[in-house]
């Protein structure tokens, strides 16, 4: 009767309160195709990516990343990044969220508060206040306000009291008044008639805004402070055309023109405000027809109203002179980058003579490049339906983000800023960075936002290794010194990877909790391709390694050589992470063709490659010459086994402590080859051959597994082989140690099985030290007086392959000249003579002898022996190659103990026993798993031959069966020996992966099944496992989209337990990454100074124009000063203890006093924010610190801002006007004189106005008296 578990079948019942041994601690998988909005911070070199069903992704240098939790299942319309800071905004139809990736505490949210849903977001350059458009044609302004005097608290979002109905400004200019669509159908869409779909402002005047409203044929301009219409840019001439609806608008860099484009990007409209009429409407200056340059496969208007795609314009100009930028739009070449539903187009025009200079169809270059370079993206399941129309309609654009790398300010952007573009599109395609070539008009390169390179065979070649500390430091230094060469590296320069912590590790003042996490990073790599991803399991980080840096570091410098990948059978890192989390010492490669088998090893610490063995067909007893182009071995692995000649028979003795190559030959035979380096008389390595002729007649081997079976009579147990035969021929157990068959059976589950796997077996203890240990001691207990002469024991030091690097033997009285002294000999098995230990007589040496071994240099050992205050050293150090990873002792007098100090200073000791292996082997009874498409059957090995003397009876014990869901296929099956579990991953028809952990004996679930959709686009996944501090980390590597998934599984300890993941922020450096202050003056400390413009306008026109700073100050301090009270559904405030108290509402306090106190508190908070969050870049102007911050009066009022010296003012004028200091002084004097004259004239006008007003009042009074007199006369 079978014990059946149906946990993998969703139709099977589950216990009401199941108890599991493990739980999923977390999942940090990043699917790049989930993100449809990318925003680039040109000052910090960081990308912020937003997706509907994913956390916010912040990318920095080397693709280091940080995930910010964000509400799932919400369509996010837009995102804005406060450049130079770590604060950003994300907008959906029902919320505006302010987030920060350097300070997670204090996120704030604004909701419509009963108003219309949001449709668009805009924040003027250099300001912290912004505006959102709504579905009913209105715009609402918001600002950031400090809510606490604590400088560490972030400012929060607040609605201001300013709401403007922009649609009402447009109604007088429409032939038919536009009504807001309030139908149920419009409610279900993100955009509808009357929605504000695009907003922009003037570069030199943040008080002037323009906007496009859905259904309005024109662009509306208004002034914020007066809430009045300034101008309506009329586009009624497009009425009746096929593409008449406007989708977006932009103001030219100089502020002289307004541009807009239609929904399908077929028309580009340009207005000049100089054409404004008396009724405040402005005629169309120029309409550029782009219908011949856009994709003929247009989308639908319905898709636009659903906001599946965005339409945008980005503008830049050419520079006239070096170091200066033209402020005259009319005489500059204007570069306009347009993107629509199916198009990305650059148009170069001249506005003075209305000339189109060039049109560049960027979408055509993208399609052609991707069709030839990246067709694997189009072949995924999500895009298979449109694979035939790949070239014609490959991209459906979501968003295009130019990387503004030359300047932050919009009026200084040049055509260089339109060279690098981030493009997001639909259909499961990942965001890409396209680098354009200005000379040829094509593309220089395309970089996909993917973690695994598409040109590298990650599946199945991915190798997991842990570099030693020395090599890790070398790699970090090489990455730091590698020059930047690609556009990707120039753009992504923000953040810090975990390897950069090593530079500060020696500085104790910089050491913080978690700074030692870099010691436990691992690399997933394809060695000969010099590609690697650095994984930090404990801090949940993943980032790419620089390929050029890898090519100069170990082990890639030696392994990145030309090899035939078809001949590579095995590549393994030793010590294996399945046994212990130790640094990788060796990389073993096995090559095979039709005539030869070659094994090579590479020493990572010494950067040396060496030959291990070479076997031909004759040595492996294979007949014939083989078929050209094939391999003479089908599969191979490295097992725990050591082969040595027997001293009592001709058979080979098999031990469990060592490494051997286990190979299945082309004819089904098995070869076990010792890798320790020992040779037989013929110069060949020790090996055991099991020819296929010993198997049952007519059988074909499907799978072979090796394992150790306990045997009380043998210290190491017995090495067993389990064969699975095809065509329903059953399975067989073969005893390698005795060279005989143990059992042969063909039960039904073996007939259906396609794979055989050992789930539970005796495993030799892992290595007891790592190659990082350069000094250790072995203490050997001695008797009071040696009983007789002879050898008392040996201390052996092994490398990762089980080869003896140092063998130290101790004896007594074996030197004829010194019969009463202890003696030693060091050998590699070459019979070195015994040498006396001077002073180590039997009467003096008591209790114990201590052997001290120290590694010096790359391949030398220095040893000494001490006891009872006597020390004896070797004159000539022992020379060898390799790193010691295991120490064993065979000591007959008593105890043997190994002790050493780790690099972190921890003292470690091990008791070394001669028979330590036998105890662990005898405690475990092996089990086998028979895996088929329908079920997993686990059988106890001992049941296969209980009372079975003939070797052909069926098993006697009840197997454990786990049925697989019929709608899923088994994709991965591996054994987690450390916890007695197996990892099972299945896949359904929709691409969902289901992760399960079963007991390796009973097949019962030990963790609740977990499903993930993150790998739906992957045809195959490779699973790598590593255990660190009792936490199992699973890394899923996708073969198609390059997705890296990280799942960590922890044990349930009965009570609630915090996760073991220690979050280390990549952007926690507060000298570089700080939240945005609440005011534009504080924000200016994070921004570069405004560019020096070459003025081409007249002096008087410049004199009458208010400076940008004055306008911004008025907006913040007056127009947008008042805020609405926050509601329960609005801003998410910090804890009550950190929230500033509101002004008292007692009637005894006047309104003026309330305003004064509020103003003082906010000003003080702003001042503290500025002093607490200053970036490393020097501010554009010096702001002195408060002189008495600790005095009680310091908090009463803000410190006055210093105006600056006269020289600084003159220098600023000279730079702005491009004149000398003398001319600037004259201009300043002239300006002061003219301002005085202007002031006097204004005073005269004021006095004259007062007189006129008084006269008017007198006439009004006389008229009233005359009217009363006439009325009296009538009566």
From TrEMBL:
The keyword Heme does not apply. InterPro entries: DUF7914, V_SNARE_CC. Residues 1122-1207 are annotated as: Disordered. The keyword Coiled coil applies. Residues 1138-1153, 1188-1199 have a biased composition (Low complexity). Residues 1213-1273 form the V-SNARE coiled-coil homology domain. CDD domains: R-SNARE. SUPFAM superfamilies: SNARE fusion complex. Residues 1154-1169 have a biased composition (Basic and acidic residues). Keywords: Coiled coil. Residues 1176-1187 have a biased composition (Pro residues). It holds the Pfam family DUF7914. It comes from the Eukaryota. This is Synaptobrevin, putative. It comes from Angomonas deanei. The lineage of its organism: Eukaryota, Discoba, Euglenozoa, Kinetoplastea, Metakinetoplastina.
């Amino acid at each position: 009767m079978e014990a059946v578990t149906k946990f993998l079948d969703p139709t099977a019942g589950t216990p009401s309160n199941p108890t599991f041994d493990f739980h999923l601690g977390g999942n940090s998988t990043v699917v790049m195709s989930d993100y449809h909005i990318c925003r680039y911070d040109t000052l910090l070199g960081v990308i912020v990516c937003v997706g509907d069903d994913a956390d916010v992704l912040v990318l920095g240098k080397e693709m280091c990343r940080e995930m910010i939790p964000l509400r799932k299942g919400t369509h996010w319309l837009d995102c804005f990044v406060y450049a130079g800071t770590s604060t950003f905004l994300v907008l959906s139809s029902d919320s505006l969220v302010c987030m920060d990736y350097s300070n997670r505490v204090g996120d704030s949210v604004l909701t419509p508060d009963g108003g219309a849903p949001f449709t668009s977001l805009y924040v003027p350059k250099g300001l912290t206040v912004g505006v959102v458009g709504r579905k009913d044609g209105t715009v609402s302004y918001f600002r950031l306000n400090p809510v606490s005097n604590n400088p560490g608290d972030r400012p929060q979002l607040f609605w201001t009291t300013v709401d403007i109905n922009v649609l009402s400004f447009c109604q007088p200019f429409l032939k038919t008044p536009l009504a807001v669509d309030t139908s149920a159908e419009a409610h279900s869409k993100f955009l509808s008639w009357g929605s504000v779909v695009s907003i922009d402002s003037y570069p030199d005047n943040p008080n002037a805004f323009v906007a496009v409203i859905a259904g309005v044929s024109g662009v509306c301009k208004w002034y914020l402070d007066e809430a009045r219409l300034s101008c309506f840019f009329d586009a009624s001439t497009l009425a009746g055309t096929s593409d008449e609806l406007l989708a977006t608008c932009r103001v030219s860099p100089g502020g002289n023109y307004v541009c807009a484009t239609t929904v399908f990007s077929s028309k580009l409209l340009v207005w000049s405000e100089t054409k404004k009429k008396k009724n405040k409407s402005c005629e169309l200056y120029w309409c550029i027809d782009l219908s011949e340059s856009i994709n003929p496969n247009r989308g639908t208007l319905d898709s636009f109203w659903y906001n599946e795609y965005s339409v945008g314009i980005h503008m830049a100009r050419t520079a006239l002179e070096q170091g200066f930028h033209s402020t005259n739009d009319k005489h500059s070449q204007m570069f306009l980058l347009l993107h629509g539903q199916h198009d990305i187009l650059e148009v170069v025009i001249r506005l003075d003579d209305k000339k189109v200079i060039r049109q560049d169809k960027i979408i055509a270059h993208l399609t052609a490049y991707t069709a030839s370079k990246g067709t694997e993206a189009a072949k995924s399941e999500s895009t298979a339906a449109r694979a035939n129309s790949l070239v014609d309609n490959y991209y459906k654009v979501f968003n295009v983000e130019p990387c503004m790398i030359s300047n932050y300010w919009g009026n200084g952007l040049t055509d260089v800023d339109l060279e690098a573009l981030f493009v997001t599109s639909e259909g499961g395609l990942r965001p890409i960075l396209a680098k354009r070539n200005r000379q040829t008009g094509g593309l220089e390169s395309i970089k996909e936002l993917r973690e695994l390179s598409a040109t590298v065979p990650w599946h199945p070649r991915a190798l997991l290794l842990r570099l030693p500390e020395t090599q890790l430091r070398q790699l970090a230094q090489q990455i730091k010194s590698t020059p930047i060469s690609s556009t990707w590296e120039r753009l992504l320069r923000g953040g810090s990877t975990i390897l950069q912590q090593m530079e500060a590790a020696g500085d104790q003042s910089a050491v913080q909790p978690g700074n030692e996490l870099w010691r436990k990073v691992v690399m997933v790599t394809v060695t000969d391709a010099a590609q690697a991803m650095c994984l930090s399991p404990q801090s949940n980080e993943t980032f790419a390694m620089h390929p050029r840096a890898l090519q100069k570091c170990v082990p890639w410098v030696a392994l990145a050589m030309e090899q035939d990948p078809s001949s590579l059978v095995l590549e393994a890192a030793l010590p294996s992470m399945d046994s212990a989390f130790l640094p990788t010492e060796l990389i073993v490669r096995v090559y095979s063709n039709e005539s030869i088998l070659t094994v090579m090893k590479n020493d990572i610490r010494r950067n040396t490659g060496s030959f291990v063995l070479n076997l031909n067909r004759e040595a492996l007893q294979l007949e014939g010459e083989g078929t050209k182009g094939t391999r003479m071995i089908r599969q191979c692995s490295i097992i725990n086994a050591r082969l040595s000649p027997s001293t009592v028979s001709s058979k080979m003795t098999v031990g469990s402590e060592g490494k051997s190559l286990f190979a299945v030959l082309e004819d089904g035979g098995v070869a076990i080859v010792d890798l320790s380096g020992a040779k037989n008389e013929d110069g060949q390595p020790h090996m055991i051959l099991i020819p296929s002729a010993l198997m049952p007649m007519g059988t074909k081997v499907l799978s072979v597994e090796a394992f150790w079976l306990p045997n009380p009579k043998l210290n190491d147990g017995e090495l067993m082989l389990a064969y699975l035969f095809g065509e329903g021929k059953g399975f067989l157990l073969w005893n390698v140690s005795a060279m005989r068959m143990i059992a042969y059976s063909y039960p039904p589950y073996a007939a259906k099985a396609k794979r055989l796997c050992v789930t539970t077996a005796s495993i030799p203890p892992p290595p007891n030290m790592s190659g990082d240990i350069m000094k250790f001691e072995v203490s050997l207990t001695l008797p009071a007086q040696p009983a007789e002469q002879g050898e008392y024991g040996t201390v052996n030091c092994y490398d990762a392959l089980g080869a003896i690097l140092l063998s130290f033997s101790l004896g007594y009285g074996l030197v004829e000249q010194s019969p009463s002294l202890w003696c030693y000999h060091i050998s590699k098995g070459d019979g070195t003579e015994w040498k006396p230990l001077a002073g180590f007589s039997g009467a003096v040496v008591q209790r114990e002898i201590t052997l001290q071994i120290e590694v010096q240099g790359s391949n030398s050992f220095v040893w000494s022996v001490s006891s009872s205050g006597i020390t004896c050293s070797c004159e000539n150090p022992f020379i060898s190659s390799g790193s010691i990873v295991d120490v064993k002792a065979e000591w007959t007098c008593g105890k043997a103990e190994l002790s050493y100090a780790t690099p972190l200073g921890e003292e470690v000791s091990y008791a070394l026993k001669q028979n330590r292996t036998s105890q662990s082997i005898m405690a475990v009874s092996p089990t086998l798993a028979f895996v088929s498409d329908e079920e997993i059957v686990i059988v106890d090995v001992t049941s296969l031959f209980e009372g079975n003397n003939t070797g052909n009876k069926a098993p006697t014990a009840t197997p454990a069966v786990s049925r697989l869901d019929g709608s899923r296929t088994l994709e991965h099956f591996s054994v987690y020996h450390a916890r007695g579990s197996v990892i099972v991953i299945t896949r359904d028809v929709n691409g969902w992966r289901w992760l399960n952990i079963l007991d390796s004996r009973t097949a019962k679930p030990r963790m609740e099944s977990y499903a993930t959709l993150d790998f739906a686009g992957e045809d195959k996944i490779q699973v790598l496992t590593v255990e660190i501090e009792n936490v199992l980390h699973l890394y899923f590597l996708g073969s198609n989209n390059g997705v890296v998934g990280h799942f960590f599984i922890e044990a349930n300890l009965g009570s609630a337990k915090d996760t073991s993941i220690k979050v280390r922020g990549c952007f926690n450096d507060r000298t570089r990454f700080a939240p945005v202050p609440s005011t534009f003056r504080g924000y200016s400390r994070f921004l570069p100074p405004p560019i020096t413009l070459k003025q081409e306008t007249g002096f008087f026109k410049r004199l009458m124009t208010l400076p940008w700073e004055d306008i911004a100050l008025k907006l913040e301090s007056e127009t947008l000063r008042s805020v609405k009270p926050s509601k329960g559904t609005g801003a998410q405030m910090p804890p009550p203890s950190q929230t500033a108290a509101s002004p008292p509402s007692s009637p005894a306090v006047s309104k003026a006093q309330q305003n004064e106190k509020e103003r003082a508190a906010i000003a003080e908070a702003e001042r503290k924010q500025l002093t607490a969050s200053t970036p490393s870049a020097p501010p554009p102007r010096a702001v002195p610190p408060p002189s008495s911050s600790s005095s009680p009066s310091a908090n009463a009022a803000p410190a006055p801002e210093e105006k600056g010296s006269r020289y600084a003012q003159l220098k600023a004028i000279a730079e702005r006007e491009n004149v000398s200091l003398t001319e600037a002084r004259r201009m300043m004097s002239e300006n002061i004189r003219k301002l005085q004259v202007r002031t006097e004239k204004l005073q005269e006008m004021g006095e004259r106005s007062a007189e006129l007003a008084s006269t008017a009042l007198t006439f009004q009074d006389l008229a009233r008296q005359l009217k009363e007199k006439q009325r009296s006369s009538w009566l």
